[in-house]
Records
---
Amino acid sequence: VQLVESGGGLVQPGGSLRLSCAASGFAFALSRYIVRWYRQTPGKERELVATITSTGGATTYLDSVKGRFTISRDNVKNMVYLQMNSLTPADTAVYYCHAASNWGQGTQVTVAS
């Protein structure tokens, strides 16, 4: 089982990106699990950015991203998303999704002018 993130890139401050997390592997139903997005910058510990329950009925966010980031999921497509708006250089990091003890390889988000 592997989680695969995509959607990262270089964006100017104030811009937006949407990250996607997909599960590959035999019969892994991402829809069954709580999914979390984390981020990490060099020399720092990985920090939890957002969480969504298996049904999508509840979400939580890191204080610094509240009102700017939205985590969502499409259980039919077996996907989880992180919509990131009003990005700042402080959001620059490698973003990872996590579910059922599995991690993706990460996707780089760079916010710079």
Note: The CA atoms of residues 60 and 66 lie 9 Å apart.
---
Amino acid sequence: QVQLVESGGGLVQPGGSLRLSCVASGFTFSSYPLNWYRQAPGKERELVANITRAGDNWMYAVSVHGRFTVSRDNVKNTAYLRMNNLKPEDTAKYYCGVPRVGRGQGTQVTVSS
């Protein structure tokens, strides 16, 4: 059974940091690239970051470039999204997804003072 489980979200003040985790099971994690998405209420889903299968290349949305870092550990079947200098507009539910495999249930990130 394919599973992707996110964790690490929460409430943080502007300028703060969080690290999200995405634990995968039920498929060969290292064979697939991975995406991080976010969706805020009333807004379309946004692709935030992507990382290749080997973790040796990545891309970021313009809105998060320079503040977010995506990484993965294929031994632990886990991907991470390190988010620094968070802004109120980063408030959203964050999901990890693997193309043609599945997507997690998401973890809420709220940036507010």
Note: The radius of gyration is 13 Å.
